[in-house]
């Protein structure tokens, strides 16, 4: 199956490299000794390949480098036996305008960048290693300083950590072919403001040698016509995540993530099998997700998360044919996610702070801050060893509406709860609930398909859910 996948990817990349010349980084002075800094040599090979279109290759070895930029018409071929290893010096990652964690700001470039380019590829069975522990340790040290000051929300922006691979404002880009992506300083793969992107065949191992904070696997951020397939992910945050901007800045940009396919992937460790948000401001539409497999290290199979200041929407979302093994929660939804991070306020007495604090603390009117998820279809879900089926908490001021959920085959310890929901249609459910509990409903209307024996009002529920203020 892997051989077939690689063959398909090779065929798919022929537009980039069918008749292109080959440029070995060794001819430009690169040394795969794991010690020599090769940024200029690798970039020299890429720039030469870009003149007429070509493939950049590496003899076997470990190539220490800072940020490199893949240009239009270039294939970066990282074969088995080759490791691209990130420098641990921040000065080796030049600052670039980008979007980070939902806001536009200047940030260190990624280790490998496709920045405002087209018709490019990064492929092979080699390794891209961010050597990220130095960045993780710096982040945790900053958290110790920021958290007591009431700046938990700022820490992710204050800690300048290079991402591993970023595709920014680009199109017709391919990434994959069996690449092993290790130890990113921050997110592993971010596709932002881009379209017609294929991520097919990546292996993410983000936590080797430590606890990598916010080491998302693949983030699709205000982009369209993106496919993610055949991913194998272990990380310490969202595994495959759809994002669309944060709060006032995300609402200003107002770019949705749309026309997305996520399929045929294994999530071993991560926050969820698939995540929407919490950066929801630009909205999501026309999303199809299928054939995902989640394991014990994944708290939720399907996760929707937003906050009262995010705004945005989710519509025409189809999620089906998922298998969850020992994944604690099948479907989780929270519209008040992580308040210490989601809600921002400059502490009293703090007068000297960066400009992005002003962006993050720009008020959002209440009516614009509520995310609206509707018209979602979830079906053919097989889950064993779950703790809870439903952990759904919508916002009473704009409930989640018109969800159709069918053909669930779930073994769970307890049924869970649904709150702030309207016009849900549940049918063909096979729920084996160990404690005999029923689904607790709180502030819901027209929830069809739960018989009297499979639901409770909040007055009878043992653990009724309340909206978090």
From TrEMBL:
GO biological process, one term: carbohydrate metabolic process
Cleavable signal peptide: 1-20
Gene3D superfamilies per record: Single-stranded right-handed beta-helix, Pectin lyase-like
Keywords: Glycosidase, Hydrolase, Signal
Keyword Signal: yes
Lineage, uppermost ranks: Bacteria, Pseudomonadati, Acidobacteriota, Terriglobia, Terriglobales
GO molecular function: polygalacturonase activity
Family: Belongs to the glycosyl hydrolase 28 family.
Region called Disordered, residue ranges: 449-469
Protein name per its UniProtKB record: Glycoside hydrolase family 28 protein
Cited SMART domains: PbH1
């Amino acid at each position: 199956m892997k051989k077939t996948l690689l063959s398909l990817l090779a065929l798919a990349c022929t537009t980039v490299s069918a008749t292109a010349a080959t440029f070995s980084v060794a001819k430009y002075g690169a040394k795969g000794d794991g010690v020599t800094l090769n940024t200029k040599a690798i970039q020299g090979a890429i720039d030469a390949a870009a003149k007429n279109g070509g493939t950049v290759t590496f003899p076997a070895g470990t190539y220490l480098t800072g940020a490199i930029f893949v240009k239009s018409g270039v294939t970066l071929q990282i074969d088995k036996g080759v490791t691209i290893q990130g420098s641990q010096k921040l000065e080796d990652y030049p600052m670039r305008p980008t979007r980070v964690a939902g806001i536009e700001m200047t940030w260190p470039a990624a280790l490998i960048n496709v920045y405002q380019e087209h018709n490019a590829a990064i492929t092979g069975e080699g390794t891209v290693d961010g050597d990220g522990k130095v960045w993780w340790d710096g982040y945790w040290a900053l958290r110790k300083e920021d958290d007591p000051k009431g700046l938990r929300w700022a820490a992710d922006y204050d800690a300048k950590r290079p991402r591993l691979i970023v595709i920014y404002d680009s199109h017709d880009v391919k990434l994959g072919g069996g690449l092993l992506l290790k130890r990113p300083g921050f997110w592993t793969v971010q596709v932002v403001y881009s379209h017609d992107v294929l991520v097919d065949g990546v292996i993410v191992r983000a936590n080797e040698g430590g606890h990598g904070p916010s080491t998302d696997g693949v983030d699709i951020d205000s982009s369209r016509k993106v496919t993610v397939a055949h991913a194998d992910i272990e990380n310490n945050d969202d595994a495959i995540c759809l994002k669309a901007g944060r709060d006032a800045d995300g609402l200003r940009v107002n770019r949705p993530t749309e026309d997305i396919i996520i399929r045929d992937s294994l999530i071993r460790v991560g926050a969820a099998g698939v995540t929407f948000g919490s950066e929801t401001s630009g909205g999501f539409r026309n999303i199809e997700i299928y054939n995902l497999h989640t394991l014990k290290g994944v708290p939720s199979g399907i996760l929707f998360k937003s906050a009262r200041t995010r705004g945005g929407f989710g519509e025409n979302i189809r999620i089906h044919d998922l298998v969850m093994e020992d994944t604690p929660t099948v479907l989780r939804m929270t519209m008040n996610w992580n308040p210490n991070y989601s809600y921002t306020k400059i502490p009293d007495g703090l007068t000297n702070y960066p400009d992005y604090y002003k962006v993050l603390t720009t008020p959002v009117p209440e009516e614009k801050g509520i995310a609206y998820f509707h018209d979602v279809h979830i079906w053919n879900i097989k889950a064993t060893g779950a703790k809870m089926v439903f952990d759904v908490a919508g916002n009473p001021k704009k409930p989640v509406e018109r969800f159709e959920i069918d053909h669930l085959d779930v073994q769970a310890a307890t049924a869970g709860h649904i709150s702030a929901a309207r016009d849900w249609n549940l049918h063909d459910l096979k729920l084996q609930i160990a404690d005999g509990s029923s689904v607790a409903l709180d502030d819901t209307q027209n929830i069809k398909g739960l018989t009297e024996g499979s639901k409770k009002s909040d007055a009878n529920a043992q653990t009724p859910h309340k909206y978090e203020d």
